[in-house]
Amino acid sequence: MKRLRASVRDNHVVGHENWKPRTEVRGAAKFYSDRNAAVVSRRVNDARSRLDDLEQRQIRRPPAGLRFGGLTAGLELRNRREFSGPVLAASEVAVSGRLESVSLTVSATEKWLVTGPNGSGKSTLLEVLAGQLDPTGGSVNAPAGLRIGMLSQDVDLPDPFERGDQRSVRQAYQDLLGAELAEQAPLSRFGLIAGRDENRPLLALSLGQQRRLALAVLLADPPDVLLLDEPTNHLSLLLVTELEAAIPGYPGTVVVASHDRWLRRNWTGQRFEMAADGDSPV
C-alpha cells in the first residue's frame, strides 16, 4: 500500500523528467506531450483504483493486548496494617434457603479455594464473610480495622453522582475512588481496561469489561482480605491466567470461590469443599 500511495503521488512523468523530443517542431512537441499526459493519467488512475480497493478490503492491525498489572499494583499507595492469626472465623453460619451451616477459619496471608456444586452456597458464603449479607444463624468474627473487598459475580458499580447512562468509564472509576486516589492510581496502571475505552459510556462495555473495571476499583485501594467470586467468569483466557498466577503473591488473604477445573487443578493453597444441600461440608 505504501508503494501504491507513492505511485499516486509521484507518477506524473513518463520517461526521464528532463527529457525532450529530438525535434522542437511544434507538432512533435504536442504529440509527445499528449502521449505523456495519457500514460500518466492511466498509471495514476490504475494505482488509485488498486489503492482504493486495498484500503476497503484491508484488515486493520489489532490493538495491542492488555497486560494485567497484577494484584499488587496499588499496594504502594498506602501503608498496610499487618495482621497475624485468624482474620475471619465463621462459626456455623447459615442463610435460610441459601446456605447450610458451615464453619471456616481463615488466617492472615492464607490463600483459600472454596469449591462445590452449583447451589451449594459458595457465593453466599463469600457475601457473609464480606459482611454484605447477615447470616440467619451462626456468626463471623474479624479483628477491628480489617479491610475486606469482594469481586462479586454480579457487577455493581454505583453511580453516586447520578450521572446517568452516559457516565463514562473514567468517570465511574473516579467517582468510586475519589479524585485524589484515582489520580494516584490511574486506571491504566492495572492493564484491565484499554485506553480507548476509558471515555466510552460504562453501559457500552461488555459484562467482562465491567468486571475488569470493578476489579481495578478494588485493587486501587487493596484490602487486607480479597474475596473473589468466580473470578474466571466473563474474562479472557490471558487475563484469567495472569490473575491466577498473581494470587500466591498477594500479601494479604485471598479467598476464591470457583468451579473452574483449571483453577482447581493448579491450586496450591488451602481448600474448602462445599457440599450439596443437606450434606456436611468437607
From TrEMBL:
Could you tell me which InterPro entries the record lists for this protein? AAA+_ATPase (IPR003593), ABC_transporter-like_ATP-bd (IPR003439), ABC_transporter-like_CS (IPR017871), ABCF (IPR050611), P-loop_NTPase (IPR027417)
Task: Write one Pfam family the protein is assigned to.
Answer: ABC_tran
Q: Where is the ABC transporter domain?
A: 75-282
Q: Which PROSITE patterns match?
A: ABC_TRANSPORTER_1 (PS00211), ABC_TRANSPORTER_2 (PS50893)
Q: Name one GO molecular function term.
A: ATP binding
**Record flagged with keyword Nucleotidyltransferase:** no
Q: Which residues cross the membrane?
A: none
Q: Which UniProt keywords apply?
A: ATP-binding, Nucleotide-binding, Repeat
Q: What is this protein called?
A: Vitamin B12 import ATP-binding protein BtuD
Q: What organism does this protein naturally occur in? A: bioreactor metagenome
